[in-house]
Specification:
Radius of gyration: 20 Å
CATH class of the largest domain: Alpha Beta
Helix content: 40-55%
Oligomer: single chain
Shape: globular
CATH superfamily of the largest domain: P-loop containing nucleotide triphosphate hydrolases
Amino acid sequence: MAVAVARHLGGEVVSMDSRQVYRGMDVGTAKLPVVERGGIAHHGLDLMDPDRSYSAGAFAREAHGWIASIRDRGRVPILVGGTGFFLRALTNPIFGEPDLDPARRRALRSWLAVRPRAELARWTRALDPARSALAEAGGPQRLARTLEVALLTGRALSWWHRHAPAEQGALSALVALVELPRAELDRRIDDRVACMFDGGLVEEVRGLLAKGYGPHDPGMTWVGYREILAQLRGELDPDQAADRIRKATRAYARRQATWFRNQLPRAVFRVDGMVSLPERVERVAQAWAQAVAVGGGLPREGANT
């Protein structure tokens, strides 16, 4: 859909997927193959190796550059993906991150990486109660990030958001949310998991292990990769691994829907995901044209779907 919208509007795609930034992680993140991008330029993919972290702040800094370049070429930035924190980092800019000692940060990350999620959640509720619900919805990496800032700076991450100045200005955007009935979403999740196994997910994880990446590297902690790692260790058989991936993905989709319901702008444009692709594209194009007309020109930095 993003490729079709970009073609219709004369745009380029900026990925807001926090896992598709990793090189060598294509099958498990459902990265769109180059041959299926229709000649539309994509930004935000394959930025780093799986042993490095990538924050919403880092994304915002890079995305502003991509968006400016796209607009300089007279094209429309189409921001696409499910990482809501990346979107918020652009529409509600986050604080300038305080200086953190690199050695202490690495040591703390390694220690937090092996803590159970329930334990991370309990500590987050104690150290940053104002942010705990949001952090828990974001999963282990978001919990660890919240704890990291609190423990290394002595102040909660929510405090920094309230008091520290934002790094960059807010992006003005048309936000379009594609919606599906829950039963249809679950069916598509099941199909996606089957496609991942058929497409070589196990072989992809084996290849990453052969390159020296392990279960505690940031890119390897995501749904799909952690279950295949357990399968390769002999802890799960293939059917059990696939079932766990399906269940974990469905649970993530529920949390994502809750986040969208509570965190997206009130003026979000909703798109029925059950109608045909041409109809979805036309509805987004009409909403974009109306936004441009009302705004007297393009929104300050781009469009988001």
